[in-house]
Amino acid sequence: MHLIDKIKAKAKLNLQTVVLPESYDERMLYAAEKIVEQGLAKVVLLGNPDKVKESATAKGVKLDGVEIVDPNTSAKLASYVDGLVEIRKKKGLTPEDARKLLTAEDNLYYAGMMVRMGDAGGCVAGATSTTGNVLRASIQTIGTAAGIKTVSSFFIMITKDAKFGEDGVVFFADCAVNPNPDSQALAEIAVATAGNCKAFLDVEAKVAMLSFSTKGSATHPDVDKVTKAVEIAKQLAPDLLIDGELQADAALIPSIGEKKAPGSAVAGKANVVIFPDLDSGNIGYKLTERIGGAVAFGPILQGLAKPVNDLSRGCSVDDIVNVVAFTAVQAQ
Ligand SMILES: CC(C)(COP(=O)(O)OP(=O)(O)OC[C@H]1O[C@@H](n2cnc3c(N)ncnc32)[C@H](O)[C@@H]1OP(=O)(O)O)[C@@H](O)C(=O)NCCC(=O)NCCS
């Protein structure tokens, strides 16, 4: 079964509620209809119900079974204001400013508080909002998972060649969030991505920490950053199969892995690759997609206490449906 179909099947088994804050974008309405039709999740759209319904009717979209909540008139608003003031009290957030954030046009803070308070299992946004705005609202409302300081992201890359990773599937991180992670952040990204590889593929993660050097072939502070990250990751997750620093060919191709990193449990067999920074990660996934012909599924956020996922602003309705299915599975 195709990976997306597996994820959809999993989502249907234990129905979760996903909030879509960007109801003013017509793709969200079409997606909401499909999600409910396919039984992937319960959907909450945020916005003025009259406007949302009018827009749906004009487009012939049926929103049966979709809940529409207006943050401005919601009975929950007062408790969300109190909650957000409490979370941000160290930053001196006033009730007035909290109310402004929670009733802002993008609905991102209201959606985040819904997820934090358990009124929704997860959130999907980013069809109109920037990645930075989605992330900032999520970090400030939901916060990070216990023991994790770094929110990051991963892509599931479905390559054309079954010899790579796990039957052609390789997890790439971080390609979307952290511009310049230090060793601690890189280690956290590695541990979190390994956990998601296991959760979504049901296989043991083999994590390669990528660099322009393999096992001391070059000396540079950027190489030290990666080797230190390997040490920290081993402390965070002693059973994790992780190795580095490794060049991409040594990580992915068995004959080169054997030559450059003999005896490594990961080299040549990696199903998770961790890039040293956002430049290499973002460029790496796009080259793999565009020149290598791989399908890139993501970015999927990790490290938040509860799931939020960010869409590309060029997303299609089917992209939204898929990401909602993914978010629903994370919420389980
Ligand atoms: C994540 C991001 C929004 C942080 O933005 P920023 O302007 O650096 O934010 P700040 O430094 O003002 O930090 C805002 C808050 O988030 C926290 N934070 C920032 N990055 C974080 C991370 N990766 N994990 C956890 N918390 C983070 C900060 O500690 C700060 O917390 P505080 O408000 O409680 O003090 C920013 O790095 C970003 O936009 N990344 C996305 C890059 C991008 O555009 N990718 C698109 C390519 S697909």
Overview of this protein structure:
- This protein is an alpha/beta fold.
- It folds into two domains: 3-143 and 304-331, Rossmann fold (3-Layer(aba) Sandwich), CATH 3.40.50.10950; 152-298, Isocitrate/Isopropylmalate dehydrogenase-like (Rossmann fold, 3-Layer(aba) Sandwich).
- The chain is 45% helix and 16% strand.
- The protein contains 13 helices and eleven strands.
- It has helices spanning 3-13, 26-38, 49-59, 77-87, 95-102, 108-116, 131-141, 183-201, 221-236, 248-252, 254-260, 278-290, 317-331; strands spanning 17-20, 42-46, 67-69, 122-125, 152-158, 169-173, 206-210, 241-246, 272-274, 295-302, 308-310.
- The strands form two sheets. A six-stranded mixed sheet has the order 8-7-9-6-5-10, sandwiched between helices. Strands 3-2-1-4-11 form a five-stranded parallel sheet, with helices on both faces.
- Helix 2 (26-38) links the parallel strand 1 and strand 2 (42-46).
- Helix 1 (3-13) packs across helix 13, helix 2 (26-38) crosses helix 13 (317-331) and helix 6 (108-116) packs parallel to helix 7.
- The longest helix is centred in the middle third of the chain and has 19 residues, at 183-201.
- The radius of gyration is 21 Å and the shape is globular.
- 48% of the residues are buried.
- The structure holds coenzyme A.
- Coenzyme A is lined by residues 131-132, 135-136, 139-140, 144, 150-151, 176-179, 282.
- Residues 131-132, 135-136, 139-140, 144, 150-151, 176-179, 282 line the site of coenzyme A.
